[in-house]
Design a protein that fits this description.
- The protein is of the alpha/beta class and 904 residues long.
- Strands 10-15-16-7-17-18 form a six-stranded mixed beta sheet, with helices on both faces. The chain has a four-stranded antiparallel beta sheet with strand order 6-5-8-9, with helices on one face. Strands 1-4 form a two-stranded antiparallel sheet.
- Helix 6 packs antiparallel against helix 8, helix 16 crosses helix 29 and helix 17 crosses helix 28.
- The chain contains 33 helices and 18 strands.
- It folds into five domains: 328 residues, no CATH class; 193 residues, 3-Layer(aba) Sandwich (Rossmann fold), CATH 3.40.50; 35 residues, no CATH class; 90 residues, no CATH class; 147 residues, no CATH class.
Length: 904
C-alpha cells in the first residue's frame, strides 16, 4: 500500500491532473486581464486620458505582434471609438472576462469534484479489497465497527482532497501571484507591503495550525474508538443485560464522550484564535493601502486608476491566500488520516490477489488426498493447540475426529478449512499447498461448516445459495435505456479501478447444486433441507407469511381446493372439530371479538387498528349499534378480572402468555384506570379512557380466556354489526380491508389463515402441530410443496440471521455447505445447539445422502459424541494438540485406550 497520499493520488490520476493544470494555466490570462481593465476604464473614458478634444477617438481591440523571423504582423486594425463608446466597450469586455473566469472556475471545480469522487471510490474499493485479503488471524485483533467507520467516514476527506491536491495550489497560488505581480507592477512599495503581509500569513498561520492537526488526529481516534465501543455494545447486548452491566457501559460511554468534548472544545478555541489572527492580518493591508496609497496619490506619484486597480486586485488576494492556507491544513490533516488508514490496512502477509481471481469456467474435482505434514497451530497467545500432526485423508473416505474440548480437534478442522494458517508444517492436496490453491478451487470443491454461523441481511434463500455465487453465470437482459446506463456505470467503474462485474447478473451456479436452472433448483434444494431437518421450519415460516399471488399463482388458484381437502382430511380422521371455519352469518367462538366484527384482514401498513378505530364510519357504526357501551362494559369486566387474578404475579409468570389483551406492564396502568372509572358511566369517561377499555374486549376469546363475558345476545349483536359494517362500507375503507371469502384467496392474510379459513380450537391439545403436519401432506399431494417452500425461503433472516433461532442457523449453515456438492466436506461440530438424538439423525442423513448414486465425497467430521464415530470409516482421536489414536471403530472400541474411555 502506498505510504504517501500525494504519491498515491499522482500515481492514479496524473493524466487528469496534467490536463486540469493546463486549464488552470490558461485561466490565468483572463484573470490577469480582469485586474488591468478597471485601470484602463478609470484612466481612459472616465477621466478622459487620450480623449482631450471633443470628438476624439481611440483605437479599440488593435491586435498586432512582432513575431521572431517574421516581423510585425497585424491581425486586426481595431475600431475607432469615442469616449462613451470606449466606456461601453471596455465595460462589456470586463463583463465578458467575468463570465469567462466564472466558466473556468465552473469547469475546474466540476472536474475536480468528479476526479475526487472517482478517487474516493477507488480507495474505498481498495481498502475493502484488502479486508477481503486479510489473513484470518487479523480479524481477531480488529473491531468490525472501526474498520467500517474508517472506510465510510475517515477516507471521505481524501476524495475531496484528490481534486485539490495539485490543482488548488496551482490555481490559488497562481491567482495570488497574479494579483501580487499586478500590484507590484502598479507600485513597487504597495506591492512590497502586500508581499510582506502575505509572507507573515504564509509562515505564521501554518505553524499555528500544527496544534489543530494534532487535536484533529486525537478527535478522529477517539471517535473511531467510540464507534467500535458502540458496535461492541450492540453485539454484546445479551451479555450486558445478563450481567447487569448497563450502567457500567453508560459510564464508559459518558467518559469517552467527555474526552471527545474536551478535544473538540480545545479544537474550536484554537481554530478561532487562528482565524482571528488571519482575519486581522488580512484587514491590516487595506488600511495601509488607503493610508499610503492615498498619500502617494495626493503627492501625484500614483494616479487614481492605479490606486483603484491596486485596491481591486488586493480584494482578490486574501481569498486565494486564505484558501491556500486552508488547503495546506487540509493536506496535512488528510495526510494524517491517510497515515492512520495506512497503518490499519497495511497488513502482512495479505492473501495473494491471484488466489481470489474470478473463475467463470467449471472447476474440476479434487482427486488427490489431503496430506497433512508436521502441522503446528498456535492461538493468539502463542500457545500450541496442534503440535506436529501428520496424517493423510483420502478422497472418498469418511473420517471422524474426536477428542475433548481443547484437544486440538477443532483447530485441526479449521486448518483443513483454511480458517487458520499453520505456524509450521504443510497441508497439501493433489501435491499443492492448500494456502496456494485459488479460492475458486477451495471455495467450490471444499465445504466447511462449524457451530459459528453468520448470515448476511437478506432472505433465507439468498443465504442458502450464497455458496453457489462464485461468478456471474448469465448476463441480465437490459432495454436500450438500461443498457446505456449500465455502459456508463461500467466506464466509470473502470476509471475508478473497480471491477465491471454486473451484480444484476445471475450468479447462482445451478449445475454445482445439481440443477439445470432456476426452474428445478428447488428440487435440488429440498433433499438437502430434508437431510438437515429444516424443511418443517421453513414450512412454518411460509405458513406465517403472506403470499404474493402474482408470483405464486398456483397457490392462489388451489386455495379453495386446499380448504376442501383439509376439511375432508380432518373429517376422515375424526378431527372435524379441531378447526372452526369462518361463517359470515355466525360468530366464530375461537376468533377474537375484533376478528368477528371485522370479518376480514387489513392491508397493513396502510390500515392499522388505531386508524380503523379513528375512522368516522367505524365510530358511527359503534354509536348506532350500541356496541360502544357493550364493549366498554365488557372491557371493564376483563380489566377487573385480569387485575384481580394477576396483579400479584411476577412479570415473567407463564400465565401472562395467555393474556393476549394485556401485558404484565399494563397491569398497574389498568389498576389505576379502574379506580378512576369505578363510579363513572360510559358517557363520563374521556375518549382516551374509553379507547383503552374497549381495546381489551377486541382481543377477547371466550374459550381461551374463560371469563364468561360473551352471551349469545352480544355475539348476535356483533354479527349484526358486522353485516352492517360491510353492507355500507365506504370506498376508501373497502380498499384497505379484505373481507373473508370462502371462494377466493385473501392476499393480506397469512398462508395458514387462507388454508384454514377459520380458527384452531384452543381446547384441542397439540392442534397446531397436527394441522401443520396435515397441511404439509396436502401440499405434497397437490404438488404445491415446492411453492410453499419457496415462500418460506423468502423469509428475511435479519441482521446476522438473528431472526432465526440458533438451531435453525446451524441447520441452515450446514445446508449451505452441503448444497455445493464438494469433494471434501469438513464439519467442525456444526450442530452443537441440537440435542444428541437430532445430531445423530442429521449426521446419518448426510452420510447416506452424500454417498449415493456413485458419488462419494470425503467427509471429515469433528464429533461432539464419540459414539457417532461408528458411522465413519476411520477415527482420529486428538488429545492435548496431538494425534493420540487412529483407526476404525471396532479396533478403537475394543482397545483399552482413550477412545474407549470417551465411549463410557
Amino acid at each position: 500500500m502506498e505510504k504517501s497520499l500525494a504519491r498515491y493520488i499522482w500515481k492514479n490520476t496524473r493524466l487528469q491532473q496534467l490536463w486540469i493544470l493546463a486549464v488552470v494555466a490558461a485561466s490565468m490570462v483572463p484573470y490577469f486581464l480582469s485586474f488591468d481593465l478597471p485601470k484602463q476604464i478609470v484612466n481612459g473614458p472616465i477621466q478622459g486620458d487620450g480623449f482631450e478634444g471633443p470628438g476624439a477617438t481611440q483605437t479599440f481591440m488593435h491586435i498586432a505582434y512582432d513575431l521572431p523571423l517574421i516581423g510585425h504582423v497585424e491581425f486586426f486594425q481595431g475600431l475607432q471609438l469615442n469616449r462613451f463608446q470606449m466606456l461601453m466597450a471596455l465595460s462589456l469586455v470586463f463583463l465578458a472576462l467575468v463570465v469567462l473566469n466564472g466558466l473556468f472556475k465552473f469547469y475546474i471545480n466540476t472536474y475536480k469534484g468528479r476526479l475526487g469522487e472517482r478517487m474516493l471510490r477507488r480507495i474505498r474499493f481498495e481498502l475493502i479489497d484488502r479486508v477481503l485479503r486479510f489473513p484470518p488471524i487479523h480479524f481477531k485483533r480488529v473491531k468490525s465497527a472501526e474498520i467500517a467507520t474508517m472506510i465510510k467516514d475517515e477516507v471521505e476527506p481524501m476524495g475531496g482532497f484528490t481534486g485539490d491536491a495539485f490543482v488548488s495550489p496551482a490555481l490559488l497560488g497562481g491567482q495570488a501571484i497574479t494579483a501580487l505581480v499586478f500590484i507590484i507592477v502598479q507600485n513597487f512599495w504597495l506591492g512590497m507591503i502586500a508581499a510582506g503581509i502575505v509572507g507573515v500569513q504564509a509562515v505564521v498561520i501554518p505553524r499555528m495550525r500544527k496544534r489543530l492537526l494534532e487535536l484533529g488526529r486525537q478527535r478522529q481516534l477517539t471517535a473511531r474508538e467510540l464507534s467500535g465501543r458502540v458496535g461492541e455494545i450492540v453485539e454484546g447486548i445479551g451479555t450486558i443485560h445478563g450481567n447487569d452491566t448497563s450502567n457500567l457501559e453508560r459510564a464508559d460511554i459518558a467518559s469517552r464522550l467527555g474526552r471527545i468534548f474536551s478535544i473538540r472544545y480545545d479544537l474550536y478555541q484554537w481554530k478561532f484564535l487562528v482565524k482571528f489572527i488571519n482575519n486581522f492580518l488580512a484587514q491590516v493591508t487595506p488600511f495601509l493601502f488607503y493610508a499610503i496609497g492615498g498619500y502617494l496619490a495626493l503627492q501625484g506619484r500614483l494616479d487614481i486608476g492605479q490606486l483603484v486597480a491596486v485596491i481591486s486586485a488586493y480584494k482578490d488576494l486574501p481569498g486565494p491566500l486564505k484558501e491556500l492556507i486552508d488547503w495546506d491544513q487540509m493536506r496535512q490533516d488528510v495526510q494524517v488520516k491517510y497515515q492512520q488508514v495506512y497503518e490499519q490496512f497495511n497488513v502482512e502477509p495479505l492473501i495473494d490477489s491471484r488466489i481470489q481471481e474470478l473463475a467463470t469456467a467449471p472447476v474440476g474435482p479434487l482427486t488427490g488426498a489431503f496430506v497433512i505434514t508436521n502441522l503446528t497451530l498456535s492461538d493468539d497467545s502463542g500457545a500450541r493447540i496442534v503440535d506436529h500432526v501428520s496424517v493423510e485423508i483420502k478422497p472418498n473416505e469418511t473420517v471422524a475426529i474426536v477428542g475433548p474440548n481443547g484437544s486440538g480437534a477443532e483447530a485441526f478442522a479449521e486448518a483443513l478449512g483454511r480458517m487458520v494458517w499453520p505456524d509450521s508444517g504443510r497441508i497439501t492436496i493433489d501435491g499443492r499447498d492448500l494456502l496456494e490453491l485459488p479460492e475458486s478451487i477451495t471455495g467450490r470443491r471444499i465445504s466447511y461448516a462449524s457451530a459459528d454461523t453468520f448470515f448476511f441481511h437478506g432472505t433465507l434463500a439468498s443465504n442458502l445459495l450464497y455458496g453457489l455465487k462464485h461468478a456471474p453465470m448469465t448476463d441480465p437482459i437490459y432495454d436500450e435505456r438500461e443498457a446505456l446506463e449500465y455502459k456508463w456505470h461500467s466506464a466509470e467503474a473502470e476509471k475508478a479501478g473497480n471491477p465491471t462485474l454486473d451484480l444484476n447478473s445471475d450468479w447462482v451456479d445451478y449445475k454445482a447444486a445439481g440443477a439445470s436452472g432456476p426452474e428445478d433448483l428447488l428440487k435440488a434444494i429440498r433433499p438437502v433441507l430434508d437431510a438437515v431437518l429444516i424443511s418443517q421450519d421453513i414450512l412454518d415460516l411460509a405458513l406465517r407469511s403472506t403470499v404474493n399471488t402474482n408470483v405464486h399463482v398456483a397457490l392462489g388458484d388451489h386455495v379453495v381446493a386446499l380448504r376442501a381437502s383439509l376439511r375432508d382430511r380432518l373429517r376422515d380422521e375424526g378431527l372435524d372439530t379441531i378447526v372452526v371455519p369462518f361463517d359470515f352469518d355466525a360468530y366464530n367462538a375461537q376468533a377474537t371479538v375484533g376478528e368477528n366484527l371485522l370479518f376480514g384482514t387489513m392491508k397493513r401498513p396502510l390500515m392499522t387498528n388505531r386508524r380503523l378505530a379513528a375512522h368516522p364510519y367505524f365510530q358511527q357504526l359503534f354509536r348506532e349499534t350500541g356496541l360502544s357501551t357493550d364493549l366498554y362494559a365488557m372491557g371493564l369486566e376483563i380489566a377487573e378480572n385480569a387485575v384481580e387474578l394477576f396483579h400479584d404475579l411476577p412479570p415473567d409468570h407463564p400465565f401472562f402468555q395467555q393474556l393476549t389483551f394485556m401485558t404484565a406492564d399494563d397491569i398497574p396502568t389498568y389498576q389505576a384506570l379502574l379506580q378512576k372509572l369505578q363510579s363513572r358511566r360510559f358517557e363520563d369517561a374521556t375518549p382516551e379512557e374509553r379507547s383503552a377499555i374497549i381495546r381489551l374486549s377486541f382481543a377477547y376469546i371466550e374459550p381461551r380466556h374463560r371469563f364468561g363475558l360473551l352471551p349469545n345476545e352480544l355475539m348476535d349483536k356483533i354479527v349484526s354489526a358486522r353485516k352492517q359494517f360491510h353492507e355500507h362500507i365506504p370506498a376508501d375503507l373497502a380498499e384497505l380491508i379484505e373481507r373473508y371469502d370462502a371462494e377466493r384467496f385473501t392476499p393480506s392474510a397469512s398462508l395458514m389463515d387462507n388454508v384454514l379459513f377459520g380458527r384452531i380450537a384452543y381446547q384441542q391439545a397439540d392442534a397446531s402441530d397436527r394441522i401443520r403436519g396435515i397441511m404439509g401432506e396436502l401440499f405434497d399431494a397437490l404438488d404445491l410443496y415446492d411453492d410453499v417452500l419457496s415462500i418460506g425461503l423468502e423469509f428475511d433472516v435479519g441482521s446476522g440471521g438473528k431472526r432465526l433461532t440458533m438451531v435453525q442457523r446451524q441447520k441452515l449453515n450446514l445446508a449451505r455447505a452441503l448444497l455445493k456438492r464438494s469433494d471434501y466436506f469438513i464439519f467442525n461440530r456444526p450442530l452443537s445447539a441440537l440435542d444428541q438424538r437430532v445430531q445423530d439423525q442429521i449426521t446419518r442423513n448426510i452420510i447416506e445422502g452424500l454417498h449415493e448414486e456413485g458419488h462419494r465425497p470425503a467427509i471429515i467430521w469433528v464429533l461432539s459424541n464419540a459414539r457417532q464415530a461408528e458411522m465413519f470409516d476411520r477415527i482420529l482421536l486428538f488429545d492435548r494438540g496431538g494425534l493420540a489414536e487412529a483407526g476404525n471403530y471396532p479396533e478403537l472400541s475394543e482397545k483399552n485406550g482413550m477412545f474407549k474411555e470417551l465411549l463410557s
